[in-house]
Amino acid sequence: MNPIERILKDFPAMVLDGALSTELERRGCNLNDSLWSAKILMENPKIIGQVHTDYFAAGADCAITSSYQATIDGYIKHGLSEAEAVRLIQTSVHIAVQARDDFWNGLEDKTSRPQPIVAASVGPYGAYLADGSEYRGDYKLNEQELMEFHRPRIKALIAAGADILACETIPCMLEARAIAALLKEFPGVYAWISFSAKDELHVSNGERIADCAEWLDKHDQVAAIGVNCTSPKYVPSLINEISRQTKKPILVYPNSGEHYDASTRDWQGATYGESFSCSARSWYDQGAQLIGGCCRTNPDDIHSIAAWVRQLSTNFDEK
User: Fold this and answer.
1) Cα separation values, 140 from 113, 125, 145, 205, Å
2) What is the DSSP letter of 190?
3) Annotated binding residue at 212?
């Protein structure tokens, strides 16, 4: 039984955490670097643990590690050795596991929520490029080359003890196929695959989300399918499109509704007007069972989702 299935067996929904990178920036970290949050693994790993802890306290049932932009090639470009790069990538898991264990061991009431899991973030190839192509998917690599890129980091994250892989902000089916093929090299390991989307029907490179979900539905090691770092206004339609093609759990963790400009490395536009707690209810009713936030969301947003999910769980237990 994969970790998501195990939680959803006893609870109606699972609360994901919120943004890590933009939350680190809010707390004073300088992420103006091609490594983005992976830079903080070198400079101030303690503050990463504090963010994980705050999300657990807010009600998150899952911590997504700070390895989104942590790649061996990226660290080597910054002067580290391959061994040092692997150590930092694995440190992202160790930090989250320690924060989870400390929080859970200190929690008095363990009956109203599941024991949280640690999802090791596997960002797309475009995140390594640091040019915004995770929102375009205009790669010049083939499937085999993408497998070669992802293999060493995935191997390191698994060895570090992550409960599941969070393959997130995937912009194209090509990269999803590469990851699904790579998972076969690691029997017993599960991953969720979450796409970035450009509108109500299409992932970032223009392919239909329904076609992506249909293809991934056949892969047992894919534990859930969904979208992240996408405007909340597109989420209802995307859930409907995914649910028509798969019985796997659907996950959604959109951003605040603002748009990221890769050239200025800044967020622009207005935030989504509806509260995350109200949105979470409608997303759940439409079929999403794993709900959280991505860029520009914070522990308060996750708290508002978790408060509603805990009440939902109480009603679930009474049935």
Assistant:
1) 44, 10, 10, 13
2) -
3) no
| Main-chain phi, psi angles of 165, to 5 degrees | -100, 135
SS3 label, residue 117 = strand
Q: Among 69-78, 180-189, 210-219, 274-283, where is mean pLDDT lowest?
A: 274-283
Q: Which helix (H) or strand (E) holds 260?
A: strand 259-261
The SS3 of residue 224 is strand
- Report yes or no on whether pTM surpasses 0.90: yes
How far CA 243 is from CA of 236, 240, 252, in Å, comes to 11, 5, 12
Q: Read off the tokens for 309.
A: 């999910």
Q: Strand 266-268 vs strand 259-261: parallel, antiparallel, or unpaired?
A: antiparallel
All domains in the chain, ordered by first residue: 3-318 (3.20.20.330)
Rg for the chain, CA atoms, rounded: 18
Rounded to an integer, what distance in angstroms lies between the CA atom of residue 152 and that of residue 136?
Answer: 24
CA atoms of 118 and 19, how far apart (whole Å):
15
Residue 294 labelled as part of a binding site = yes
Q: Is 295 annotated as a binding residue?
A: yes
In the predicted model, what is the mean pLDDT of the chain? 92
User: Binning pLDDT at 50, 70 and 90, where does residue 266 land?
Assistant: low
For residue 273, name the pLDDT band (cuts at 50, 70, 90): very low
